[in-house]
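Figure S4 source data
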Amino acid sequence: MSRLLLFIAALLSLIALPAEAQTLTTSRFKIEWQVTNRFRLFQDPAFFRQHENAWRQYLLHVDQQGMASDARDSFVARSSVIGSEHVLNDRFIAFSDILRQNFDWRGWAAKGQDALCYDARKRTHSACGGIDAYVTPSSHAIEMWLSGQNLPATAVCEWRIGGQLVAQTSCADRVSGTGVELPYPGGAEISVNVVGETPIITEARVRDLLIAGLGDSFASGEGNPNRPVAFSETRRFRNFYPLRRQNDAGGGAAWTDELCHRSLYGQQLRAALQIAIENPQASVTFLDYSCSGASIAEGILGPQTYVERVASSERSAQLAAPMLAGGSKDSQLYRLMRELCRDTPEMKHGIPTCPGNNFRRSLDFVFLSVGGNDIGFSSIVAWASLRDTVSTTIASFFGATVSAKEFAARMRDVLPDAYADLASALEMSVPVTSATDGVFDPARVILTAYPDLVTNAAGEICEASPDAGDGEDRYAANQSLDMFSSWLTARPDRLAKVREQFALLYKRMRDLAGDHGWTFAGHVYADKMFEGHGFCAQNIRRIADPAEQLMIPCHGAAERDTQTCQTSFSAKEGTWRPYDPATQNYPYALRQRWVRTFNDAYMVINQKVRDRFGKLDEQASAAVFSETTGALHPSAEGHAAMADSLMLTLRPVLYDMLYSER
C-alpha cells in the first residue's frame, strides 16, 4: 500500500475514533421521562401509582383476549375506568374466581381519605402548601431513564435538568427523588452523559391541565363515601336490622366533603384521574366543587340546602331535622372564583367575578353535571315508588311527588332558562379559554348525561308486582326496598314512565348543550352503558354472593327466602339472613347492579341526624328517613362507567391539546 493510502486510512481511523468512543448516542438511546404524581389532588405519589398500575393490569388482561387491534382499542376506550375499578375493588383476584386473602372491604378510597390536597375543615384545595401552590405549581417531580438496547449498566451516567446536575448513577437506573423536577410552566432541557463524554439532550415540558368539577350528586359521588359505615353482628336496630358497629357521631361514613357528600368515586374525579393516568408527560390539577342536592340556581350559582341535617328542638316530623343551609357566598361558582382569583371576588348582578381578571390561571375544562334537581328528579322517584297510602310527611321529605307528565313539563319550561342562566354566568366569570386567543370557549364546558337506572340484568325494565300484596317480595325490584316496604313499592307502570323521561331528558340536555356551545358527553345514555345494570339487576350465577343480594340483612326467619324477617319481637333466637352484616357487607365489591338501592344506602352510608351537640338523634333520623340518603345514585362501578363515557368525548380533544405541538 502506498504511503498516501496509509496516511488516508490512519486519518479516517482518527476521525472515527470519537464516535466509537461515545457511549450514549441519539441513534442508539433515547431519554424517556414521566411525571411522578400526575393527579395532584393526591398527596402521595404511591396512591396515584396504585391507580396507574390497576389500569396497566387491566390492559394486560384485555390483551390476553385475542381481539383484533381496532376492536381492542375501541373496547379499552369504553372500559378503562371501570376496568381499573374492577382491579382495585373486586374481592376476587381480578378477572378470576379466586377470593382475595387480604381483601379490604372498605374499598380503595378509604386509604386516601386523609391524604388529599383538600382541607375538609376550610373546604378549600389548600392542604398542600396553600392554594397558590396547588393552582399554580412551580415544578413537577419527574422520573427519567434511558431506553434502547444494551444499556451500559456498568457505566456511570450524569443527569442534568436545566444544566444542573441532579443525579449520578448507573446508566440502567431510573432517576427520581429530591431535586428531580421540571420547572413549570416553561420546562427545561434534560441531558444525560457518561462521565467525560458529550451528553444527549431533549427538551421537556409538563402540560398541566386545570379542571374544575361543578354539579350535583351524580358528579359528587353520592352513595359512595370514601369510607363506608361498619355494622355490628350483635347489635340490632328495631331488633331485626343491622345497627352500626359504632353507633355515635364518629361511626358514620367519611367523605372528602361531608356537607356535599363528595367522594373520590365521583364520575368527574375518576375522569380527571384517568386523563392523568393515560398521559405520562402531563398532569392534572383538579378543583372539585360538586355537591349532592345542587341545582343550577341553588348550588352552582347560589347557596343550597345540603343533604346533611341537624336535629331541631321542634318535634313535629317535618321540622325534626331541617337540612343545613349555606350562606350567601356558599355557591360552587363563588368557591371556584375564590380559588382561581388572586383577589377577593366581586359580585356583579349576583355573579362572582374576579376584579381586573387577575386570575391565577385559566381553566382547561369545566366538567358539569346538573339539571336533574332543577326539574325534580327526586320527586319523580318519589312518584314512582311511594305507596298511595303513605302520609304527606313522607312525601314532603322527598320534596313532594312529581308525576311523569309534570316532570316533562318542567323539562320543557324550566330547564332552558336554567341552562341559559348558567351559560351566561360561566361566560361572565369563569376563565375557560382557548389556547390561541384567550377568548371564552364554551366548548370547554363538558355537560354529562344521566344514565338509565331502571333495567334488570337482561336490559329490560325492572320487573315488579303489578298489585300490592303478599307476593311483592318475589320481585327483585321489591326486594331492593324490603326494609322500607311499608312505605315504598316498585310500580311497573310508573317505572316505565320514568324510563321514558330519561330518554326525553337526554334529548333535551343534548339540544340545550348545543344551543350554548357546550360539549355534550352523552355516551352513558346514548350507548346504553347502564343497560343490564339498573337497581334491580342481579348476576344469577353469583346469586349466593352477598354483593348480589338485594335484600337487607335481618335477624330471624320468614316463610320464604325473599321475605324480610318475621320472627317474634324478642328475637332471642335466630340468625342473620341473607348474610352477616358485620363480616359479609361489601359496599364496593363488584356486582351486577350499578345503582344504589334504598337497602344499599342503609348498608353503605346509614346517615344519621346529629343534634347541635354532635350526638346522634335516632328519633329525628327516623322522622326524615335519613338512612335512605344516597339511594338511586350510581355505585362506584356506575360512576366509573360514567367516567368512561366522559373520556370517550374528551380523548380526541385531549390529543389535540397535548400532542399537536409535539
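Figure S5 source data
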Amino acid sequence: MLTDALKESIRDAYARVRDGLPGFRSRAAQTRMIAEVARALSQSGGAAVIEAPTGTGKSMAYLVAGVEVARAMKKKLLIATATVALQEQLVERDIPLYLKLNGREMKVALAKGRGRYLCPRNLRMAGNSLGESGQMGLGLDTDLALWSKPPAERDKQVLRKLTDAFDHQTWNGDMDAAPETPGDMLRSMITTSAGGCTGRRCGHFMGCPFFAARRAVADADIVVANQDLVLSDLTMPGDDDNWGGVILPKPDETLYVFDEAHHMPGKTIDRGASEVPLGTAVRQISRLARQVHAAYSLTDKEVIGKLTLDAGDLKLQELSDGMEELEKEIRQSWMPDPAEIEPMYRGSLGQLPDNWVHHATVLDVAASEVQRWLTTVRRAVTEMSEGGPTQEALSRELGMALERIDRQVRTWRAWSNDDPENAPPLARWVTLSNDQQLVCHASAVSAGALLRNILWDNASASIMTSATLSVGGNFRGFADAVGLPDEAVTVSLPSPFDLGAQARLEVPAFSALPDAREQHAREVTDWLAENLDWDAGNLVLFTSRAKLERVLQCLPIDKVRKVRAQGSLGKTQLIAEHVAAIEGGKGSTLFGLASFGEGLDLPGKLCETVVITQLPFAVPTDPVGATYAEWLESRGRNPFLEVAVPEATRLLIQYCGRLIRSETDRGRIVLLDRRVVTRQYGGQMLKALPPFQRVIERTS
C-alpha cells in the first residue's frame, strides 16, 4: 500500500526532478497524475485510466510514481507504448534523465519482438545458399530454399554488408539500427518468427541478438516494450495456468504502464483475429507434405507421433480436401457483386450458413490433428544431434508451417463454435482478394473480455494513459472497450495550456457535406487555395486517400509545389523536408491521413494551421465494427451514438491536438465539415472539444 515512507520517497524524487531540470515548471495536472499513478500501482490489482493532455508531462509523472513504487514493492516496471518513437525517447532520454537526477542505479531494457532482431542462422543460410545465379547452392529441395526468387544485386550487397557488420561486432543485430536497410523480402529471410526459431537447440543461440535482448529483459528493473509484444506475451500460456511471463516479466510481479493507450482496444482485437486464404493454404499443405517426407527421411524414422508417413500423408490430404470442399461450398452459395471493389460476405450477428459451419467443424478436427502430429515431427528434426544445413532449413520451415496451421485451427474453431450468451458474438466473414482467392476471417469485436482475463485480473497493477481517452470527461466508451474493472479510477486532467487564448476553431460556411463527395472535394480545394497561408507551416488531414488525391489534382500548380503528401515519401523523410522548408523561410503544407493526425509533433512555426477536412468516422463496411453494431442494435441500443460518435470525437480531439504543442504556440484549427453544426450529434462533439476560441460562420 501507499505508506507514508513511500509517499515521502515520491515527493523527494519529484523535488529532485523539479530542481534538476532547467526551466522546469510545476504543473498541478502533473502532480495530480503522479498521485493517481502511485495510488493505483501500490494496490494489489490496482487499475486506473488517466487522460493527460499534451504538456502535462506524462512520462515524467509515471516515472516518478512508477519507479519509486516498483522499488518499494520489489516489482518490475513495464512501460508499453504504441510507437517506436516514444520507446526510443523513454530509453534514450527520459528514463536515463530521471535515474541520473535521482541517483538511481537501475537496469533498463528495451524489449522488441523477435522480428526486429537478426536471426544469425537465417543470415548464414541466406549467404551460404547463394550461388552465382542467385539460386540455392546447398543442393536442398526447393521446398527448403530461402530465396523464393533470384535476388536483386542490391539484396546481395545489403546481405554482405550486414554479414560483415555483424561478424565484426559493429552491429548488434537490432534491425532498427541496421547499417543498411534491407528490402522486405531480404528482411523476412534474415529474421524469424517464434515458429521458425529452435531456441537453445540452435547452433547460433549464444550469439543470437534476440536472446541477448531477452536476457537483458530478464535482468532489467525497468522494461520498455511495444504494446503488440506485451499483448503477445500476455496471451501466451504461462506457469500455473496463468497467462503471460513467457517473454516478459511475470504479470503478478509487474507494474504495467500503457502509454498511448487509446491504441489498446484495436491492438487487442487485432491480436485475436485470424484468417485463412483458402487457395494459398491448400498449396502450402502440398509443400508441407514434401517437407514432412524430408523429415521422415532425415530422421530415419518410420513412425513419428504415432503416425507412419502414409498415415500422416492421409491427414494432410484430409485437411487439404476439407478446404477445397469449403471453398466449393462458399462459391456455390455466395455470388459477389462484380461492382464491389472489395467483395465481402459477412455473417449477420456473426452467424454463417449451416453448411459452412459444418465444413469448418470438420476442418477444426483435421487441422488440430495435423497440428499435434506436426509438432512432434518438428521436435524429432530439431532434436537430431547432427543434421547439418538441411536440418536447420527443415526446422525453420516446419516451425513456420506450424504457425500457419495454428491460424487455421483458430479460424475453424471460431467458425464452428457457438458464441456465449449475453456477450458480443465473434465477427465471421469471407473476402474475395484481387487474385480471386477466398479468404476466411474471424475476430472478436470487443477487447474487453480478453483484457479482463489477461491483464486486469492477472497483473500486479496497471494504468493506462493517453491524451485522449474520454469524450468530454466521459470514460464509458473506453472503459467498455478495454474491460476496465468497476473499481478502477478514471481521471481527466485539464490542459496546462491556455487553449482559449492560444487557438481558434473555425467552421467555414460550406454548402456541401462530405457525403456529396465531388462537390465537397471541390469546396475543400477552393478553401485551401484561397484561405490557407501557403507561406507558413500547415497540416491538412483527410479521412481517405481518394479525397486527398482528388484535392491535390484540383489545386493550382503553385500550391501543389508546396504540398508534401503522405505516401510520396517515407513519413520520416517527408517531415524532415517539411521542417527544413519552414526553417529555411519557405512555406510547406503536409497532406496526411489518420496516422498524421496522431503522435505528430510540429511545434511553433512548423504547424500554425491544422485543417480537418471531415469528421473521422470509421468506415461503415468494417466487418468487426458492423458486427458489434448489429449486436448493440439487437439489444435495443444505438451503435452510432454509443460507438461511432464517441470514437470520432476522440479522434477529432487527437487531430486538434496537433496544433498546440507548447505554451508559446499559436494557431487555428479549421474544420471543413458542417455536420458539427447541422447534426444533433455535432453539438455533442463541439462540446467535447477543448475550450478553443470559436468562429462558426453562418451560411446564407
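Residues 132-140 have pLDDT under 50 and may be disordered. The radius of gyration is 27 Å.
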